Amino acid sequence: MITIVAKNSIKQGKTEEFKNLAEKLINESRKEKGNVSYTLYQDANDNNIFTFIEEWENEDVIKSHNASTHFTSIVPKFADLIEKKSEINLYKKIK
């Protein structure tokens, strides 16, 4: 299993727009074969920081997800909403 942690710093006044787009991405991604979980979190101390935590069965399903219509149509729209480059890390479960 692979976990993706994608931290996003959203511009002031753009959080609602980000959450609306994120909701569409989450709903479609959860339907994908190989998706274990896909959740968005808002930082408890900074309302402009949102982090996606996703769990996928393997790298092949992640590649498929990244090529999906919903991913390729929604994720580029985040570019106008984020304050700085997103921090994205992939983790492999070891225990």
From TrEMBL:
<feature type="domain" description="ABM">
    <location>
        <begin position="2"/>
        <end position="90"/>
    </location>
</feature>
<dbReference type="InterPro" id="IPR050744">
    <property type="entry name" value="AI-2_Isomerase_LsrG"/>
</dbReference>
<keyword id="KW-0503">Monooxygenase</keyword>
<dbReference type="Pfam" id="PF03992">
    <property type="entry name" value="ABM"/>
</dbReference>
<protein>
    <submittedName>
        <fullName>Quinol monooxygenase</fullName>
        <ecNumber>1.-.-.-</ecNumber>
    </submittedName>
</protein>
<keyword id="KW-0560">Oxidoreductase</keyword>
<dbReference type="GO" id="GO:0004497">
    <property type="term" value="F:monooxygenase activity"/>
</dbReference>
<dbReference type="InterPro" id="IPR007138">
    <property type="entry name" value="ABM_dom"/>
</dbReference>
